[in-house]
Amino acid sequence: MVSMINDLISALMNGDTATASAIGIDFLQMIIMFIIGGILIYLAIKKDYEPALLLPIGFGAIICNIPFTSIVTHPETGELGVFGFLYETTIANELFPVLIFIAVGAMIDFTPLFQTPSMLFFGAAAQFGIFATMLVAILLGFSLPEAGAIGVIGAADGPTTIYVANAFKLKELIGPLSVAAYSYMSLVPIIQPPVIKALTTKEERKIRMEFKQRNVSKLAKILFPIVVTVIAGLIAPESVALIGALMFGNLIRECGVLNRLSETASNVLSNLVTLLLGITIGTTMQADAFLNWKTLLIMVMGLVAFIFDTAGGVLFAKFLNLFRKQKINPMVGAAGISAFPMSARVIQKMAKEEDPMNFVLMQSVAANVAGQLGSVVAGSMILVLVGRIIGL
Amino acid sequence: MNWEVIKPTFYQGLEVMLYGLLGVFAVLILFYIVVTLLGRIPEKNQESE
């Protein structure tokens, strides 16, 4: 910093305006990145927006923009610093997103899905946003892999977003993509209600749905992760890392003999990986790579993706209602995204606002769990289809 | 935005969208069948009853 100021003063004294303006721009970019980092930390602490991710990302954005720091790469020798090493050994090789999936799998209870299996279709319909956003991103000038990775923000699934971006070697976009994915995930209670209200009538929001509570056998819960992994793997082998990790986590949860491992995966592993993932991603947000029009567009596209996802789920439910005697509350379709359990809670809250005696929580939770499966499958589809086109 | 430049990528995107959505629905339909079949397995205590 001191040498930066010295260079600036000497450039000004020598009348070297080109050098002086270059140093001035660097200084300005650094300040902007400090402010962005500060905003993320503020949102994490004050607004409680995904604090486990946004706080480390915000702090990482600050420390990597301190001039002449060698935490990512040494400014003179180019050798990897601590966080450069962490990035190469934990994110670039897709280790952390996969570990996060084991932790997520250990936290998911698929029981609501067994009780209302038809909700699985909303987990597919709500992925419409991923593909629609991809098309919009292409129209805005992004390349196919970039557009695919941007669309995956709509999965409301941070690890999948990071995984896909990384598989397409989009290191410079991982920072903005992660910030967009995690920020909008925490904004689900703000984004979804107006979209749902715009697409449904008051009568539709009042629709009551029947729910029959029934027990699910332990054997079914154990077989489910194994069968799902095999099916997904046979259809799209590229999805095995993601689905396999998710289902492995779920298997250790449901098997009943690995409680300690299950607890470790859902607590210690999840916390440790989240901690290092956040700050490592934050340190990719170096000003020269972050401050450009692409970042701004990615933030806008993230919002578009969430809106399209919500609309996709709601409209699909309305479409199904054309053929059903027992109508589905179309709001439940919007819960088919991966933001669990936030989206299900939002839907139940909205249903209660319209009719205090309306309970659609179980159906919403089932759709939400289906959304977690659907988002991983959709991310894998992007990986497979785009990967084949670009020859990955 | 130059449409002639974007056109090939856009069509590739449409192809990804079509096959992607079909793929997601196909996989989740298979999951639906799996969940429905597995859901029929009776609970152990119910079996013994």
Structural class of chain A: mainly alpha
The largest chain-to-chain contact, stated as pair and per-chain residue counts, equals: A-B, 48 and 33 residues
Strand content of chain B: under 5%
- Specify the biggest β-sheet of chain B: none
Structure annotation, total helices of chain B: 2
Category from helices, strands and their pairing of chain B: mainly alpha
Care to count the β-strands of chain B?
0
Number of strands of chain A: 0
The major beta sheet of chain A can be summarized as: none
Quickly count the domains of chain B. 1
Helix content of chain B: over 70%
Distance between the termini of chain B: 70 Å
Report the helical percentage of chain A. Answer: over 70%
Low-confidence stretches of chain B: none
Keywords:
heterodimer; A: 392 residues; mainly alpha; 72% helix; B: 49 residues; 2 helices; 0% strand
Report on this structure.
The complex is a heterodimer of chains A (392) and B (49). By secondary structure, chain A is mostly helical. Chain A is built from 20 helices and no strands. Chain A has helices at residues 2-13, 17-46, 51-63, 82-91, 95-107, 111-115, 120-125, 128-139, 144-151, 158-167, 171-186, 188-199, 202-205, 218-235, 240-254, 259-282, 287-290, 293-321, 342-354, 361-389. With 49 residues, chain B is mainly alpha-helical. Chain B has one domain (1-40). The termini of chain B are far apart. Classes of the chains: A mainly alpha (392), B mainly alpha (49). Chains A and B meet through α7, α8, α9, α14 and α20 of A and α1 of B.
